[in-house]
Write a structure and sequence with these properties.
12 helices, alpha/beta, 3-stranded mixed beta sheet
């Protein structure tokens, strides 16, 4: 039987009536007070996590017969990711489509479809990370899911292993015509300051990720702000608990009232393979803290969690780091399912969505025999193609071996193919070969996976466009 959600206008009216009627002599409200929001949405975004990346990460982690947590989600769909002006999207418009229901142009952060990221001469609308977007005549902000849920009384949180001002997290809380205006984007998070996004009310309740450089002045070591402001201090003034490392994050309260912010690296956080475990929390650890803080508010919440560095490793044609970060992302999904099931048995009031913003050019070569998971001395899917009949190394037309994983384009384009040092294949620094030589690998245009579990998850099925997901989330929670 479908639940019938109380319309927001009716809920608001009930609250207003309760406030106006006051208490009776027995200190009991004469009119029942409408309950606050009780539903939860956790939206996971694996940046660049195309289906080939998921497949390779599965084999890398648990072998061909194994399953990632993402594989077990009961409702699934394919998502078309093209942007308003691009067959292949970048992260900004794809995440913005998920968050607003609007297709927009590449590099644009949560603005109307006609918004341009560059001027007539093709120059980007930012200078030294400050926005130079025209104040009129170049689009208008489009309300995001986070803003809508904040206005409706929900708790809100944004978690990422990338800079918290990077395209994916920014699309949840900021509106700017060019994604690289990260100083401007950072200011949107700070209550009471110049450039603050008033749609965020008293502020996003949980802010965790990298990118402290965009919060501190360039006169300070590592700072990039041109306006002299120290937004970290401003967040503290706005009563945020603040953490700069894993120990400080653990010490932040989950008391139902304190908002928290943590910036754990000047730029992006470390790849999971390289993460200094005493300094930087894992994505799962940040997600766990975010849930604790939001759940303590005793009301529904919206939480966005991004595995941001999957994308960066793929751009470098560095498969091992990409696959490990995908596994770390999957660990955060697993932890969330466990924690939310404890808070909300059966996920009757919780929707969990897991997807990606775009594909990459990663591919799996040849007719390789099964490898099993990657272990010491066994590179697995990171290794050479070996024939499935006899296990012999498969070679190209010039009798040279090649790896199971490769890229359509990228920085490692060999002028002449030759022998491959098999002992190097397990190295975190090994780069897979690319077909087309480019300084950095590009995104791909393939569809991406979406999985869902919990309340309203059965709304997600078949083939969807990314902007349709926005409406399905709202439908699922009756918003």
């Amino acid at each position: 039987m479908k639940r019938i959600a109380l319309p927001l206008a009716v809920a608001g009216a009930s609250l207003l009536m309760a406030a106006c009627n006051g208490d009776n002599d027995n200190d009991t409200p004469s009119t029942p007070v409408a309950a606050g929001p009780t539903k939860n949405v956790v939206f996971f975004l694996g940046d660049g996590m195309g289906i080939t990346t998921m497949t390779a990460a599965r084999i890398y982690s648990v072998g061909e017969d194994g399953e990632l947590t993402m594989d077990k989600l009961p409702e699934t769909a394919f998502v078309h990711t093209y942007s308003a002006d691009g067959q292949v999207t970048d992260s900004a418009p794809s995440m913005a489509a998920y968050m607003t229901g609007v297709k927009m142009n590449n590099e644009v952060i949560s603005m109307s479809p006609e918004t341009k990221a560059t001027n007539a001469a093709g120059a980007p609308y930012h200078t030294l990370f400050d926005s130079t977007c025209p104040t009129t005549g170049n689009g208008t902000p489009v309300e995001t899911l986070l803003e809508i849920m904040k206005t409706a009384g929900y708790g809100t949180g944004v978690v990422s292993t990338a800079r918290i001002t990077h395209a994916t997290p920014a699309a949840t809380y900021a509106h700017v015509c060019h994604r690289d205006a990260e100083n401007t984007i950072a200011a949107a998070l700070v209550p009471g300051g110049a450039g603050y996004n008033a749609k965020l009310g008293d502020g996003v309740d949980v802010i965790l990720g990298g990118g402290s450089s965009y919060f501190i002045p360039k006169t300070t070591t590592g700072g990039l702000r041109n306006d002299g402001r120290n937004l970290v201090n401003e967040l503290k003034t706005a009563k945020y608990g603040y953490a700069a490392n894993k120990t400080e994050l653990a010490a932040l309260p989950a008391d139902g009232t304190t908002k928290i912010a943590g910036l754990f690296n000047a730029s992006h956080m470390a790849y999971d393979l390289d993460r200094p475990a005493t300094q930087e929390p894992s994505l799962a650890e940040m997600t766990s803290k975010a849930i604790d803080v939001l759940a303590a508010k005793k009301k529904g919440f919206f939480l966005m969690v991004e595995g941001g560095r999957i994308d960066h490793a793929l751009h470098a044609t560095n498969a091992r780091r990409a696959l490990q970060d995908t596994v770390a992302f999957d660990d955060a999904v697993k932890l969330t399912l466990t924690k939310m099931a404890a808070l909300d048995p059966g996920l009757k009031n919780t929707l969990i969505v897991v997807t990606a913003d775009h594909d990459h050019t990663l591919h799996m070569n040849g007719y390789a025999q099964r490898t099993g998971k990657t272990e010491a001395g066994k590179p697995g899917v990171l290794g050479l193609v070996r024939n499935y009949v006899d296990g012999a190394v498969t070679t190209d037309v010039d009798k040279n071996p090649y790896t199971i994983l490769g890229f359509g384009n990228g920085p490692k384009r060999l002028a002449t193919r030759g022998p491959i040092d098999a002992t190097a294949l397990e190295s975190a620094d090994f780069l897979q070969e690319a077909v087309v030589p480019l300084a950095t690998e590009t995104h791909g245009g393939g569809d991406v996976f979406l999985g869902a579990q919990g309340m309203g998850a059965d709304n997600f099925a078949g083939s969807l466009t990314n902007n349709e997901v926005f409406g399905l989330i709202k439908k699922s929670i009756g918003l």
